[in-house]
Amino acid sequence: MAEANKIVLIMVDTQRADYLGCYGTPGMKTPNLDRLAEEGIRFDEAYCCQPVCGPARSAMFTGEFPHINSSWGNTMAINRLTRTL
User: Fold this and answer.
1) Are the C-beta atoms of 55 and 68 separated by less than 8 Å?
2) Could you write out the DSSP letters of every residue in 20-43?
């Protein structure tokens, strides 16, 4: 049986790259995340469609901009008819 590809998506709130050892910050001890970055794919550049966390996550999980999926504020749920991952 062939091995399936796996995706591990780690999402944190207000986490900057310079708080992780895998991005070259001396003194930051994040061995488990560093190992995941070494064995997987680490993004050096990423872009977000919305600076607010809730709407940004809604876009990631729906494939739609927040103004389309109705979640353009942190306390706003996505449209109930919108499909998600």
Assistant:
1) no
2) SGGGT-TT---HHHHHHHHHS---
Q: Which residues make Cβ contacts (< 8 Å) with residue 75, sequence separation at least 6?
A: 54
Dig out the tokens for 29 from the structure.
């001890």
Q: Could you give the CA distance from residue 84 to residue 37 in angstroms, rounded to a whole number?
A: 26
Q: Are 49 and 66 in contact (CB under 8 A)?
A: yes
Rounded CA separation 14/3 (Å): 34
> Tens-digit pLDDT profile for the chain (85 aa)?
677 887 778 888 778 888 999 999 889 999 999 999 999 888 888 888 998 989 999 999 999 999 999 999 999 999 999 999 8
